[in-house]
Amino acid sequence: MSKQELEVIGQLEVIGQEDPACCAGLAAAPLDEEQATELAKVFKALGDPVRLRLMSMIASRGEGGEVCVCELTPAFELSQPTISHHLKLLRQAGLIDCERRGTWVYYWVLPGVLDRLASFLTTPQTAGAGA
User: Fold this and answer.
1) 58-114: per-residue pLDDT in tens?
2) Which listed residue, 77, 79, 90, 97, has the most CB atoms within 10 A of its CB?
3) Cβ count near 109 (within 10 Å)
4) Is the separation of the CB atoms in 96 and 90 below 8 Å?
């Protein structure tokens, strides 16, 4: 069996960061100030119960799935402008994107964003640890 070096292609960036070293996760190395600032924006966006529910509703459509704002608004006892504001904050945090089609706006989770967050928060299991 020969040993070869394999080039990793298609490496996803971590929430606004292009440096692959930032993908190592929270426990791998301390964050620098820029990384902490960018990640804080993401966690702040997800720190509101309405935005967390909106994110869940959009993400539950699966990869490539879209949801119309007309389907999101009735789930809340909030005005449409308030829902739009929450969606705008999720977009600004780099979690979702949208497209206007006629009078409606459709939202979707940006590819890989939830996986990158999950891998950032995952700590490596050490041998003998756990169950």
Assistant:
1) 999 877 789 999 999 999 999 999 999 999 999 999 999 999 999 999 999 998 888
2) 90
3) 22
4) yes
